[in-house]
Amino acid sequence: xxxxxxxxxxxxxxxxxxxxxxxxxxxxxxxxxxxxxxxxxxxxxxxxxxxxxxxxxxxxxxxxxxxxxxxxxxxxxxxxxxxxxxxxxxxxxxxxxxxxxxxxxxxxxxxxxxxxxxxxxxxxxxxxxxxxxxxxxxxxxxxxxxxxxxxxxxxxxxxxxxxxxxxxxxxxxxxxxxxxxxxxxxxxxxxxxxxxxxxxxxxxxxxx
Length: 208
Description:
Layout: H1 2-18, H2 20-30, H3 37-69, H4 73-93, H5 97-104, H6 113-122, H7 125-137, H8 141-163, H9 165-207
Helix pairs in contact: 1-7, 1-8, 1-9, 2-5, 2-8, 2-9, 3-6, 3-7, 3-8, 4-7, 4-9
């Protein structure tokens, strides 16, 4: 039961941070207005492959990074929480997509699939730190497998949303997409506060 609850929490958290609806809106602002269905399907496939590779790299090397730089897990929690909080504020305020579109609109569509759509828009610092934090909270191979399944489910959702982003935009409209992004921002913000408080409390105990 506890394993399922953790799995559910991880899935919802990763979904909120990844925010595929918001990412699809940003992606459409970067891509050509005349992009075809087959082109956007190819971009969705490349972007999804990118975030999957990034996930497994972080999952495998996350502990090594912490040990290499001598970073305490709780310190990462506090810093990761601050990053997520800034991200949440950006999501709630609905800013950032315009800047990205202006900076990237001179590139070919398929060149944008890996950078910046895959990294850092879909797989950014918030997702990076969250995965490392989750990994350090796990103790068994079953729990690690659960995290992998959780991310793979989100990667599949990301692929489906990005692949069908043209239809989603027509159905939801800009206002609908913004509302969903703001709701995801609230969830990410609440999670960030938990990370910050938990990290500070544990650091205080270890240094006192």
